[in-house]
Amino acid sequence: MTRKRKSIxxxxxxxxxxxxxxxxSAVGLGNIWRFPYMTGTNGGGAFVCxxxxxxxxxxxxxxxxxxxxxxxxRQSPINTMQALAEEESLSSAWRYLGWMGVVAGFMILxxxxxxxxxxxxxxIRAGSGIFTISSDIEIAGYFDxxxxxxxxxxxxxxxxxxxxxxxVSMGVRSGLERAVKFxxxxxxxxxxxxxxxxxxxxxxxxxxxxxxxPDFSKISAAxxxxxxxxxxxxxxLGMGAIMMYGSYLPEKASIAKTxxxxxxxxxxxxxxxxxxxxxxxxxxxxxxxxxxxxxxxxLPIAFGKMPYGEFFGTLFFILLLxxxxxxxxxxxxxxxxxxxxxxxxxxxxxxxxxxLIAWILGIGSLLSxxxxxxxxxxxxxWFDMMDYLTSNIMLPLGGLLLAIFAAWLMKRQSCVDELGxxxxxxxxxxxxxxxxxxxxxxxxIFLQAIGIF
Length: 453
Ligand code: PHE
Prior knowledge:
Elements: H1 15-26, H2 29-41, H3 45-73, H4 77-87, H5 95-128, H6 136-148, H7 150-170, H8 172-180, H9 183-199, H10 204-212, H11 221-234, H12 241-246, H13 255-283, H14 294-305, H15 309-343, H16 347-367, H17 382-409, H18 412-419, H19 425-449
Helix pairs in contact: 1-13, 1-15, 2-11, 2-13, 3-4, 3-10, 3-11, 3-13, 3-17, 3-19, 4-5, 5-7, 5-15, 5-16, 5-17, 6-14, 7-8, 7-15, 7-16, 9-13, 9-15, 10-13, 11-17, 11-19, 14-15, 15-16, 16-17, 17-19
The structure holds phenylalanine.
């Protein structure tokens, strides 16, 4: 038996707070902005089907592994990987897996903050009542006009990054905990209201069949990769965010139960967002494959038409901003914890420095919609590239390596001890999935995407 470590950054006050915080990390723009538009650009129902399979067979087992490693290491992902590798007499090069996560975190946060900035702009617009008096075409035009203005994008990107830095600099207990406690339930309720509205529109049945009727001829190998990437992105996996949060988890809490709760809540929110949005797309004669602007065009049209739309619209974008906020703090936390542990920095300084790096990277993303729109690599702008590299490559690769570390290299007894669910059938199921199914699944999808399989 190894001695139990303690985190120098503190601990969640209970298992519930961990569930809330991890759900706060998971539920964000990924569910409400990215999931519907990815579904729309990758073949509808077939994408949703592959996505759910990836969550069940790949993401959930890897999430348990990631939380387990985090709780055992109790440090930033870089130091955790190093410490666990030493403990298991493995190469200390495993710490580079932690590094890849930190880099992925910066890359994701850089474009995440730009999109979160859009929600700030939309809070103000919805509050001004402009959607009520605008035509559908005008509403679509607002989004294009926002993207065309680098100055406006810079202001809102800066505001969002500052919000993130502020919460992270306050630390685990006072910062992160407080932010998530009531936002999640509120967002949930509002989504249900939106689904209720979608049910009253003429597009409801078409929207539902678009989302749930899988036509596998509509999904390509790239679409399957995108579905897996979406599962990693949405559950915050493969880059150390969940590992970091796991490092604050109290000793006794059950990792399996908490993982299922987080994954269920995350998937439910994504599905609800889809059920709220696709009926509107069809009711208003829009195209589902509009790309990143999907919710910023469909929802404002709906808010413009529905009773009390001004109120609901403003509230919706406020809640979306909060959902993005509780996710963005988890993107920054691993880097900040490392700066505190290894560079002896104080939290506020470390947060500001890490935030600055992500902010600078983000400028590339906001320029991709205007001045740099024509600079492309493999047909992708900077924004697309950051998104693609992280979601479709770095996160699944990180998850694959974590699965290999936990299920192939760590001593079986170490896993049994740390998961604390005994050595029965539940444990064996997890072990089998994380050892065989998840890694093989990720590999096949990778190989298939590059045309080898
Ligand atoms: N899961 C978050 C979302 O869905 C994004 C995220 C990805 C957060 C990776 C942390 C790590 O919005």
